[in-house]
Amino acid sequence: MPDPSLLLHALLSADTWLYVIIGVALGVLFGSLPGFTATMGLAVLTPFTFRVGADQALAMLLGLLVSAVFSGGIPAILLNTPGTPASIALAWDGYPMARAGRAGFALGLNAIAAFFGIVVSLVVLWAAALPLTQIALQFGPAEYFAVAAFGISTMVGASQGAVVRGLAMGFLGLLLASIGLDAISGYPRYTFGQPELLDGVSFIAVMVGLFGIAEVLMQMAGPPRPREGAAAALTGILPTWADVRRLVKPALSGTGIGVWIGLLPAAGADVGAIIAWDQSRRMSRTPEEFGKGSAEGVVAASTGANAGVGGSLVTTLALGIPGDSAAAVLIGALLMHGLQPGPLLFRNRPDLVATIVALVFMAALLTVLWGLLGARYLSHLLRLRDEYLWASVLAISLVGTYALNQSVGDVWTAAIAGLAGFALRRYGFPMGPLVLALILGPMAESNLRRALALSEGSLDIFVTRPISLLFLGLALLTLGWPLVKQLRHR
Amino acid sequence: MTGARVTAGALMVLAVAAVLGTLGYPGGAQGVPGPALVPRLVAVALLVTAGWLVARPDAPALHPLTARRARAIAVTCVSLLAYVALWDAVPFVVRTAVALLLFLRLLDIAWRPAAIAAAALSVSVFIVFERFLAIRL
Predict the structure, then answer these.
(1) Does the beta-carbon distance from B42 to A392 stay under 8 Å?
(2) ipTM entry
């Protein structure tokens, strides 16, 4: 474990604070704009960091990463349009809460829960990185398939009561995920000779379509938003002690799940948030309130997403394996600055590990301050007439999607996903399962086939390895529990 | 209920097309399934669930739409597709300002505030992306 006094060096440096502030400000921009992601922000910022030293570059990059994941929750709560994939689950309860006139409370909860999730995940990064990476090293294709299957199984919980519709959307998501070159054989599937489809359907473009464009159309088709909601939104940003006591459980479970999912390569904050939300709903005494503005749902989704940052950094720094796409860009940036992430980093550069922990803490602190102080002003957005908000969301969504790869193909994907999403949502099809399947489908399929290749076609590999067996058992329980509950009720 | 049934029916058609699309894919080898297995299984599962929903739509009650609002939504959908189709043909600020003006007018915003909002929004988005983020629009 690194010497705690090393933390003070970064915390007491005015220069470091300045660079973290620059990163946090950029993260707010990249996180708040639908279509933009933390990954994109890191990729844009990395070339500019050549002009400064490695520590200053890290300060900006980590500041951006932390604040972008948090800031994605702001449009999710206020407009039901997640700024980043990590905030999809946050919209499920944050937006209904804002619609009910409690936008300030939702934004405040998000800020506090995000800070809590990040700080706890930093403690894990500091104290338990090495033991946890030993477990992560035991993961093979069978374990990854089992984790993905467990993630996909939560689509029943993400169906918001419409189980058959949710399953249909999950299968549609898995089908969309199979578009493009097959990861094992390289055979093109459903590409219709279009080179743009060889890499598959752009997940971000689909997300922008389903949650940005479709949301605008849904609101146009729905009842008008009550105007008194905007006035009420400006009060009650901080939770009461009674709220805090009630919300400790979802905060802890969300953080635990977020850290664990963050540790796993290829499963990022988006998956962590969705699984955390679903598991908190199962453990809650009031599961029926989830999806309708539950404070527990907001806290679980926010901690699940933000704790993933610390979890992902453990894998990134200790193994040199990216926990998600943002971490992959971060590894590239570290390498460009002459730093080699991997097991030796923890042994040879304890000062750097301490610096990183300090930088993430500083970024989290600035982010929670911005989240709490800004909540009052951000909720003023709800005072704008809906028509202007809709116009802004449409324009920014389409341009943000184009900015991903500067590809009109992505804009077409977003537009078509938006129109299809509107038709599906209007008739009660939930979008959560579709998104979950789209994220986890490729991971599940490729690892299923890799595992079968290793076992020469034997399914035993999934039940003879304890971690795989554990997650497959959890997946079965997650899928079967609602049925058991229904039978019990009868 | 008809709309819910049509939507589920469209999913069934998609599922059938997806199954048919996998017929030409190569098979697996040495116990490892080929590229057809997963999409085919998933498409069959989609077919079954969508078929269930055609038989038992059980859709939630819809908020009634006025003819004027229904027309606004339809025109928005068409103009959205036209906006993307004209992406490379018409300069960004002009294309976006016209589309937003049309959108705001459809929603009964008066000409003057609609024009100001459309112009301000398209110019500010252009400045943020082109100047600050160096993304060519």
Answers:
(1) no
(2) 0.92
